[in-house]
Design brief:
- The complex is a heterodimer of chains A (224) and B (287).
- Chain A has 224 residues and is of the alpha+beta class.
- Chain A has helices spanning 3-42, 46-64, 70-84, 87-94, 104-129, 187-201, 206-223, and strands spanning 133-143, 146-154, 162-171, 174-182, 185-186.
- In chain A, strands 1-2-3-4-5 form a five-stranded antiparallel β-sheet.
- The longest helix of chain A has 40 residues, at 3-42.
- With 287 residues, chain B is an all-alpha fold.
- Chain B has one domain.
- Helices cover 63% and strands 3% of the residues of chain B.
- Chain B has helices at 2-33, 65-93, 96-120, 124-139, 148-151, 161-167, 186-197, 200-204, 211-227, 229-235, 241-261, 279-285, and strands at 175-178, 182-185.
- In chain B, strands 1-2 form a two-stranded antiparallel sheet.
- In chain B, a hairpin with a 3-residue loop joins strand 1 (175-178) and strand 2 (182-185).
- The longest helix of chain B has 32 residues, at 2-33.
- Classes of the chains: A alpha+beta (224), B mainly alpha (287).
- Chains A and B meet through helix 1, helix 4, helix 5, strand 5 and helix 6 of A and helix 10 and helix 11 of B.
Chain lengths: 224, 287
């Protein structure tokens, strides 16, 4: 007897219930999708984070120093780079498959040229943003001794905090940066694709790349 | 203004969604036509097996490289004579404060499209935040010139159709370099077309045929070029600028999609140069 009225009244609730169920479903689905990432994010490495906080902040501070000339900055950066980055490892990585076929003589020449080139490029990229403070926001352990440290750089000329990630290898007191990521783009990965393609297109001749970098490296320093 | 916006927004959304649904069907058809060889890319919700186990980055999917390289050359030439001088004039005569106002206004006009995509991605919270951003910035923020919402803990969080397709599991497909548009891939190209075709602001305020639409397009292009100017500088350092652009664009878009899915990135191992440990794989990779 009262049931028709009840049904009428109940309809909105049922609909709301259905909506809630839908939301729960989507929520659960979203959780299911993100949970692997969450699990990975829980594995942090305080040692790697502390390393990046100290050494990367030092580089950012040097580049933000308004009292230093560009030439002075270049000099200091040149010295600071070995404390921060594992240059030989990066040198090997950017050669990709050609790291196996390069001759010792070519390797020696490439290492010299790449070092100058990389210093210019890394300095330019970090300098493009002119931030002042670097703050570690977390880290993800890919596997022991291979960690992505996430930071944000702010202050200076940066209007919105800029996320920058650092890939560090090592352990204990011995960490070194091997790659840096801005806006989703890893510098060393991009360089590997750039360099391998250049050598491929030169019919496998690594000297073509070495000459090219020599040219670009000097062009870059002339621009600064 | 705010009342009018609120009154309009449900209608806008519904219309937008209807258009989106139609577009989606077309897009789905197009994506299905994308080379079947990349079918494995289209299920990224299942974590991929740990890359290749060596230090080589995945080879690029660029079957149209010859054509793309020609477009790239053409675009860089056009940039050199037209866009770059205009942009550097703009950078020279306007202080950074003004340029930031322009960027905010451009971004604000894209916000309704962002909301639509948050909804399509099944992210109601983000959709609500972006809606609130649009309402606050269009009114209190004087037509979007000031990003007031960001100071109210509503930071911008972009979304577009390319990202939505990525969230739904579409792989990037072949890389494309389109004259006058720049780097794209099949997924993001279809996405870009939909972004333009279903843009609520174009539909309700004025499309490209109106003065508003023309002004908006012009300002958007200059703003984008100014914001990517450091990237253009970086290209001067590259040994192969074409490949550097392709690599950077692909990584940037994948990161943008991971931002929506929350997935962790698969990275190549750092220390094992490819080839010798897996001769079969290396041989297969060589064309």
């Amino acid at each position: 007897m009262t049931s028709p009225g009840k049904t009428m009244k109940n309809t909105p609730f049922t609909r709301r219930g259905a909506n809630a169920a839908l939301l729960t479903f989507f929520g659960a689905a979203a959780l299911a999708v993100t949970s692997p990432a969450l699990a990975a994010a829980q594995a942090r490495d305080p040692g790697a984070e502390a390393f990046v906080q100290t050494k990367a902040q030092r580089v950012v501070t040097i580049l933000a120093n308004k009292g230093m000339s560009d030439a002075q900055k270049k000099q200091v950066f040149h010295q600071a780079v070995d404390e921060l980055a594992d240059v030989p490892r990066v040198t090997n990585f950017v050669l990709g498959k050609y790291a196996r076929t390069i001759t010792p003589d070519q390797k020696a020449r490439f290492a010299t040229v790449f070092r100058t080139y990389a210093e210019n490029v890394y300095q330019s990229r970090i300098d493009d943003y002119r931030g002042e403070q670097l703050k570690v926001t977390g880290s993800v352990v890919r596997k022991p001794g291979d960690v992505i440290v996430n930071t944000v750089i702010s202050g200076g000329q940066i209007t919105q905090p800029l996320p920058v990630s650092w890939r560090v290898l090592g352990g204990g007191q011995n960490w070194k940066v091997v790659d840096v990521q801005f806006k989703g783009i890893w510098l060393a990965i991009t360089q590997q694709q750039d360099f391998v393609s250049t050598i491929d297109n030169a019919g496998g001749n690594i000297d073509v790349l070495i000459n090219q970098l020599q040219k670009n490296g000097s062009g870059s320093s002339g621009r600064r | 203004m705010s009342l009018r916006d609120q009154d309009q927004s449900p209608g806008q959304m519904a219309a937008g969604r209807r258009f989106a649904a139609a577009g989606m069907a077309v897009a789905a058809g197009l994506l299905a036509l994308a080379p079947a060889a990349h079918a494995e890319d289209q299920v990224p919700t299942v974590p991929a097996p740990a890359a290749s186990g060596d230090a080589s980055v995945q080879p690029a999917n660029d079957p149209l490289e010859g054509l793309n390289r020609a477009s790239f050359k053409l675009n860089m030439g056009l940039d050199h004579v037209v866009l770059s001088p205009v942009t550097h004039g703009y950078l020279a005569v306007t202080p950074k404060v003004i340029r930031n106002r322009v960027s905010s206004a451009v971004y604000n006009l894209g916000e309704p499209n962002t909301v639509m995509n948050h909804v399509l991605q099944g992210k109601p919270k983000r959709a609500m935040r972006s809606t609130a951003r649009f309402v606050v910035n269009s009114t209190v923020g004087v037509l979007g010139l000031f990003d007031v919402a960001a100071k109210m803990h509503l930071p911008p969080r972009g979304a577009d159709f390319g990202q939505t397709f990525g969230v739904w599991g579409a792989g990037p497909g072949a890389y494309l370099y389109v004259p006058a548009m720049g780097p794209l891939n099949v997924r993001d190209g279809v996405g870009r077309a939909l972004d333009i075709a279903t843009d609520p602001v174009s539909m309700f305020v004025g499309g490209f045929s109106t003065d508003f639409g023309k002004a908006r397009t012009g300002v958007t292009i200059i703003d984008l070029r100014a914001q990517t100017d450091p990237a253009f500088h970086a290209l001067k350092d590259a040994a192969d600028p074409y490949v550097t652009t392709r690599s950077a664009y692909s990584q940037y878009r994948e990161a943008f999609i991971r931002e929506a899915t929350g997935e962790a990135q698969e990275l190549p191992d750092f220390d094992t140069p490819p080839a010798a440990p897996t001769p079969a794989k290396a041989a297969a990779r060589k064309p």
